[in-house]
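INFO worker-7 received task bundle
INFO bundle size: 2
INFO processing item 0
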Amino acid sequence: MLITVVTVTHNSEDVIRDALRCVCAHPRVASCIVVDNASTDSTVSLIRSEFPAVKLLQNRENTGYGVACNQALEQVGTGLALLMNPDAVIDAAGIDRLAESFSAFPDAAIIAPYMSGQGEHQHFAAIKKIRHGVAGNAVPVPFISGAIAMWRMDCMKKVGFFDPAFFMFYEDDDISIRTRMAGYRLLAMKGINVRHVPGRSCKITEALQSMKLRSSTWSRLYITAKYRGAAVARMAALFLIARHWLALRGTDNRSALQKKQLESVLADIDAKWKAHKEGIDEGLAAATGKHYEKLTAAIAKRNARWSETEAELDRQWKAAQEKHQEGIRHEQDAFEEQWQQRIKHGENTDPVQLGEHERRWKEAMSQHQELWGSLVQRHEQARRETAGRHEQEWAAIEKELREELAGVSAAHDGRIAAEARHYEEWRMIIQKRSEELLPGINTKREREDILWAARSFLRNPRQYTNDAT
């Protein structure tokens, strides 16, 4: 069966590109419908320029998720609809698996990727877990998250789409309950590659946070009334009003004390982490100091060895130079003695013989000069080779020492990163657990929003009004 993709946006320019890119080109996807709830950023222009094939419906005001989603669902003409938040991404294989699963489970109306917490939603505690068998990777669940899910449209048209009374939050709880009450199953498929970061569908602002808290409070009371009765919901609203009104009047000092206690615990954790990190840094400083001491000793040893080598080369050069000079003097004396002997014995000393003697003397001197040049070349070659060996040895030593220092630094950074993660996890666990155990840790603005939502529900328990007054 072909698929229609349905997405609702509101100031979603940071995430909508990835969401549409992963589904628009899929061969099973017949069309993509995006309903924009009065975005003030570049969401609309981005979709029009980069995804011209997408059908874009624009609302002049933010009608809420359920109403906007129903606008798109009314125009779906395919057998399946893939509902996904703009901050969700699914790969092509995941889309295929969801679509193909409906053939294997004809009684399933909604199938979604299995995500952490799927089927154990805490919004509506009255839902009890269904305990059926598991076929393959399909897990029967009592609740399907609205982040990303595939609907069988012929079934969901019988169930009905989202309740328009919900502005935001709990509409997925409600549709899950109604689908099961109609006799259909909800399935979560394991092993599907999905990326979803809750809360990134639109840019977070103080006004948006306030609207989310008001909407979630009102929707919780509404779904309570819908499935537990109006009296229970009214009592819950009155309790919220009394609790937060007293807190704002200063009568309820418990939350302030609990908040101070939590802040004290977290401050103590921060101080201990700071001291622990300083200890690790001191360990790095000590290890680095030892490394530099080792490096300094290696440099001193290298310089001493080079000095000894230079001295030995100079000694060898001086000896060769003296030997060469001695050879020249010996040759000169031999020539002189030979010439004097010839004069003494009265041998002919005409200019020709004198010239021959001078020629032989010059040849001898030329041979000595060539020998001297050869000696100089050999000496310079030996000096260069020795210097090259020293440089190679030093490069190897320096590389080893630098790698050792890099290893020490990397180990330190790794330890800091690992322990920092543990610290953050520990801090978050303590903070989350403390907030669960110590109720009422709310800011003044949050209490005012909860009061507004509870009073709004008592005035009109059938329809949420997105009104800031």
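INFO item 0 finished
INFO processing item 1
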Amino acid sequence: MTLSEFKDMANEGIVIECLTTQQRRKVLELFEENGFPVGSAIRAYMRPEGDRNITYMHPAFKPDESLVCCYRKFGQAAEDVVNAIRYEDVQALIESPLPLDDRNDVEFANDFASLLY
């Protein structure tokens, strides 16, 4: 999944099934880094000391509510939003750094060479 696909899905409504508190924290950070505001109550899950609550494990964004929230049950959340995915579907976005630009090596080398002349 690409970042633009994630944003498109989130804008339609999305819930992400997380199995650990670390996954939940990383998904909440992904939402926040991409312009989806996290509710103040949910923000506590992003702090290491607040990361122990395992009741609400599934981060979701519903466009009509405009804040990221967390659901207790994934099945219930999946009924409330358009897109229901697993953590593994966004794991690469979270764990792999995004490239600084979209040029391939040849284009980059040409652009760099043009700066030297």
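INFO item 1 finished
INFO post-check item 1: The mean pLDDT is 90.
INFO post-check item 1: The chain has one domain: 3-116.
INFO worker-7 idle
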